[in-house]
Each structure stands twice: as structure tokens, then as C-alpha cells.
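Record 1 of the preview.
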Amino acid sequence: MADSEKDSLKPTCADAPTGLTNKTEATNAVTDIIPLDSADGVHRDEWATLEKRVRWKVDLRLCSIASLLCSLNLLDSGILSSAAVTTMLSDLQLNQGSRYSVSIFIFTIASVVFHLPCTVAARFVGPRVWFGTITFVFGLLTLCTAFIHTWREMIALRVLLGIAMSGIYPGLTYLISAWYPRREQQLRFAFLQTGEVLGLATGNIVNFGLNHLEGVAGMAGWRWMYLVQGLIACVLGVVTYWWMVDFPENSHRSFYFLSEHEARIAARRIQDDRADLIPQKFSWGTLLANYADFKIYGFACMFFLLNLVSTFMSYFLPIILQSGMGFNSNKSILLSTPVSVSQD
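->
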């Protein structure tokens, strides 16, 4: 292999992440993860083959569990809307005034408020521990909902559920953006959306089945929905701890993931794309500076309008089918499935 080709594959001080104070520090930071001789003897065709293998491994480990976790984003709305056409509203006195709407609203507020701190926490705590913990907590809170008896208890749990849920979607988006070059990210974000849609559609079918357990063990059908799916989320939280991967610079902390050579290739892909493999030292000033970018507010408005109708349908479609169109509770739950898939 020609020396010029070798040199073109080696990291330089210009590749070092911003925020490091001098060239020596920058070079050391990069070479600690990507040794300068890591590309020696690697032909460009061989490099492309190795890169493809690493990408598939990351897809298998990260995108698979990320899609499952994102399905929890709509699991809550699926259970609540399905339970709303059973005896839940009367059992918890949620059918008085606007209590049902408040239970939805308070969940959203708690989730939005904690989006930013929970996303930052993923970097400090580590993805395996963080996503495993909040998924398990979300499942535990969902499970506990099966045993409440008043609307006040429901509101309290909805606040806690919103907090637990707040770190999942934005945190996974952040993790995926850290693992993939910019040209590959959009397809992986689509995987997350696919997980949400399949989770909601599958959840409605599961709710239809669980509602037939009405009266079993002296429990209402809606309580079985929360109990069973809460247990599933708890198990998923345990699986997440072992299956989730860490950030690229800490890939060695992942459980049976990449070899040392593959880890260097993965790190090199990120360094070549945007030179930010080593994260900057955290500061609130740097973080909050993003709020000065007016494009963020435009994207936020677009996202709000995009989700306005789908969120409304997720929470209220079974009620419309039952009270407005005359279907019974089981048919209302089941008929929500095709609409849930098509709206996303």
C-alpha cells in the first residue's frame, strides 16, 4: 500500500475534536482510541468491507433495542385509550369533568419538562445503565397502575410515567447520532419511528386480548392490560442493560459487542465524518447556546403540528368508536389498530 494512501487513512490533529486546548492534547485524545498505525496494510476495498461489517453489528445491537424501547413511547397511550372504553373511567372516577384529559395533559407536561435533563443524563450515567433503569422504572409504574383505585393516584402515576418516559426517545436519538455518520442517520431514525408504529398496533391487539380477562382473579380487564404490559416493560428493561451499547469512545464497556479492531473502525468513521468522537467538557453555557438558533423553534412547530392529529387519535379514537359510532369496548379497541398504523 502506498505511503500516501496510508497517510490519507490516518487521523491528524485537524481531525481532533473541538474544545481541546492544543495540538498535543488533541492528538493524544484521538490516538488513545484510534492508534496512528491502525489503518496500515488495509486496502481501501478491505476497509469498506470492514466498515460494512461494523455498521451491521451496530445496526443489530443498537437499532434493534432502540426500536423496541421507542415502542414504549406509544405503549402508554395505547393502554390508556383502550382502558378508557372499559370500566376504568368509572372505577377511578375519571369520567367526571375533564379528569381524563388532565391525566393525558399532565403526562405530556412532565415528559417535555424532563426531556433535556434526561437526555444529558444518558451521557453521564451511560446508555446501558440509564436506558435499562428508566425502562424498568417505566414498566414498574405501568404495573403499579393496575392496583390504583382513585383518579388522584392515576394523576400521580401519570406524572412519574412522563418523567420516566422523557429520556427514551430523545436519548436514543442522541445515541444513534453519536454512532453513525450524518449520511446514515436518517434511515436509523426511521427505524425508531417504525418501532413506535408497530408497538402501538401490536399493543392494541394485545389490549383486545387482555380485555377478555375481565373478572379473572377478581380484576377488571383494564387492570390486566397494565399488569401484563408493565411486566413486559420490566423484562425489557433488564434485557436493555445487557443488549444496549455504550457511546463509541466507550464501546469496550458494551457486553460482547465489538472487537478492539472493530471499535477502532467505528471510532474512525465518526472522526472522519465530523471530528467529534471525544465529547467536549460539559457546560450549561454550551448547551443553552443552542436555544439561540431560531431553526430549532421552526422544527419544534413542525413537530408539534405533525404529532397533533396522531396524538389525538392515539388517546381518543377508541372513545370515538364506542360513544360516537356504537361499537362495544372490544371492537373499539380492535378497530383502532389499522388507524394507528396508517396515521404514522
